[in-house]
Amino acid sequence: MNLVGGVIPESEAALEKTCSQAGNRFQLNLLARLSEIPGIHMSVTSFRPAMIFPRSSLIIQFPRKKYKLGDYEQSQVWFLNVLILKQITMAASIFLQLLVWAFVHRRHRRVMLVYNVFSALSIPTLLAAWATGSIAVALIADTPHGCYSYKGIKGLLERLDYFQQTRVMRCFSGVICLTKQTWDDFAPGRPGLVVEGGINTDEVTEPLREVNFALAEELLHNRVCMYTGDLSNLNGIPMLLKGFALVADPDVRLWLLGRGECESVVLDAAAHDPRISFLGFLPNDEVRALQRRVTVLINPRPSQQEFTKYTFPSKLLEYLQSGTPVLTTRLPGIPAEYYQHVFPIETETTEGIAEALRRTLSIPTAELREKGESAREFVVRDKSWQAQARRIARFLHSLTDGSYLSPAA
Question: What pLDDT band is residue 48 in, cutting at 50, 70 and 90?
Answer without folding.
Answer: confident
